[in-house]
Amino acid sequence: MSFLLLLLPFLVTPQSNRNVSLGSSLTAAASNAHWVSPSGDFAFGFEQVGNGTHDDGGYLLAVVFDKIPERTVVWSANRNNLAPRGSKVELTTGGRLVLTDPSGRQIWTPDTGERAASHAAMLDTGNFVLAAAANVVSSVWGSFQDPTDTLLPTQALERDTQLIAKYSKSNYSESRFKFIMQDDGNLVMYTTHYPESRADQFAYWVTRNYIRAGYSLALNQSGFLNLLAANGTVLDTVFNGGGSSQDFYHRVTFDYDGVLRYYEHPKRNDMSSSTDHASTSPPDICTAIGGPLGSGACGYNSYCELEDDNRRVCKCPPKYVFQDPSDESRGCVPDFDPEDCRHPQESNNNNDALFVLAAMPKVNWSESNYDSFPSETEEACQQSCLNDCRCALVTYSRETCTMKRSPLSNGRVEDAMSGKSLIKIRRSNSTTSLAPDFDQPTDTILPMQTLVRGSSIFVNIIFVLASCPWRKNPLNSKVGETLDQGALSSNLRRFAYKEMETATGGFKQVLGSGSSGTVYKGVINDHNSEKLVAIKVLDKVHVMEGHDVREFTTEVTIIGETNHKNLTRLVGFCNEGQHRVLVYEFMSNGSLADFLFGGGETRPNWYTRTRIAYSVARGLVYLHEECNTPIIHCDIKPQNILLDCSMTARISDFGLSKLMKANQTRTTTAIRGTKGYLAPEWFRNVPVTPKVDVHSFGIVLLELVCCRKNFMMEVEKEEEMVLVDWAYDCYSKGKLHKLLGDDKDAMEDMVRVERLVKVSIWCIQEDPSLRPSMKKVVHMLEGAVLVSEPPDPNSFMSAI
């Protein structure tokens, strides 16, 4: 008897509750027939999307709830490739289910291997199946095993299977949100680098306690969504369910805003419950998605706000509009030209402001920072943003001023936010106040001072030339001509050598020296005020030899184009005769070497050291992956890491840098860098990759943790002479405290100490392939990903 009940779902025909026989078909038309389940709860067939034309919409081959007034799609076959009117789905006489367009071109067919179906059936569970044989209850394929964005009762999400949210409320194509039952047994939510399918590094939701023994995720008939072990044990309950399956339809859908929601709908019209969701994960998508990369829950320059039903709404700041009005998730763009800041009108003799700041209460963009500094007053903070063309928005909180550049990312409304966010917008041509436009008091808008205009024809020529798109190969043209063009494209200032002599007082105060030149302290005139700078003069001997001319060209053309808060900024250059000079912004706190090894009685602050480590790592990520021309620095060491007035680390000295062409992963070059920080591959005559910088950073990271140089002859114990070996020995024996001396702050933060030491050991692995990328290093340092146990860094050498 029970066997007959199991067969019952298959004993139905199309439109009359029987099996779908071979040769049966459905056609996409205005009024469609469907293959319906025995109870009539579910139907398989074409659902019209949009207006039904091929360009503006089409037909979705789908499974839907057939008795709910608003037909709800729970599965679809061709979500990324809608079928035009007249398309056909057919269960062929050969036992294959095929969707074709009117011309007969195949749009979709399920993967059944070599097996053919004897018939198909729409089951009362919502599973559309291709049955293997007429007398055997089994299937060669079912919609439950190939889910889209919804789970139904009795359906399970197995390992290495995922739900992908639809793009919008009316667009069923795949979006950037993924809900994955991973191979490692962890259940996670990711965003992808849309329109690519690869997942971001960060998961914005994971099962509680980072459970990694999960085998499947299953929705039972009582509406409980459980993470199960292989033996069926419940490891975690995501949703607690609702009413009885006799009275309610249940489903769990991964919605277009990246939120997993549990829904229930009454089966009888006289019941009071509605289709509103009963539970959500995560509860606040606006704050769940974050991190240093990506646009957040909404697109760039927009911000996320939750409605009363916990649904995301994406909004634009004042004077910004949606990039695509039909798709709010694409973010916002200004309806003015931000470049006006760089090119103020010469007719501004009436001292009218070009830009103003508009207050946005409780709106925060957590990322996009490029500078942060103490500010005694809010007015001074605002003025700093208005005077800086890079600044798109500024926040002022607890006497701290934070500048943010465009595009703004991870914007959201935060009721508990302290301080203010003020966004820079173009003042309209009208001289009336902008306050009525934003319903805000006039004291939240500050005028931008008239930008300083060039005082000579030469300066004006520079601004004109800076916009020219031409650039010659520096190795195939005159050095002076190439440097001028490269520098002008970056709006750098050109100095005469006599100005450099005057600025340095005859090159008297030496800040430091290296293999290619000497750095002096200087003062230049910057818009009628004096400005401290660091002036690097290349040795004339090296210039005569010629190879440092190329290094000089590299620094001018590349550093002039880089723009990151953790890199030193190039102010200008001198290229006169045999004189090659670089002018950098002055770093008032000297180098990291001075900070760490300056000989003070106490160790530098532990938390400052960790912040420096994170800053250097982020700077290297920018060099390796984010700037226009990827750069291998080749000489990362404490002497080349400078500290500004707020102790923010800035990577300096690109004279030894190696440029990478587009899509290039390795390059060849002569040995460069400094003994003690060089990666082993420099000595093996093999191409180098950005992993050489990873190795050098690992050494610097250990020095930051331990506050000592990598190699010290004067230590009491011989085993402590080489820091790398001593650190791994302490780590492997569980004696990391020995590295810290009397550093009480570090001793009270041993979890972070262990994480940083483990990261450094991964970075200094002899085998470059074992070293993480700098982006992975940043994630490990910040605790965004777990740091696994590192092997002995010398194991590769011992193996060969």
Commentary on this structure:
There is one protein chain. Strand 37 and strand 38 (517-525) form a beta hairpin. Helix 11 (606-626) packs antiparallel against helix 12 (691-706). It contains 17 helices and 45 strands. The strands form twelve sheets. It has a six-stranded mixed β-sheet with strand order 36-40-41-39-38-37, sandwiched between helices. Strands 29-35-32-33-31 form a five-stranded antiparallel β-sheet, covered by helices on one side. A four-stranded antiparallel β-sheet has the order 1-10-11-12, with no helix packed on it. The protein has five domains: 2-145, Orthogonal Prism (Agglutinin, subunit A); 150-283, Bulb-type lectin domain (Agglutinin, subunit A, Orthogonal Prism), CATH 2.90.10.10; 313-444, Hepatocyte Growth Factor; 457-585, 2-Layer Sandwich (Phosphorylase Kinase, domain 1); 592-799, Transferase(Phosphotransferase) domain 1 (Transferase(Phosphotransferase), domain 1, Orthogonal Bundle), CATH 1.10.510.10. The termini are far apart. The chain has 800 residues and is an alpha+beta fold.
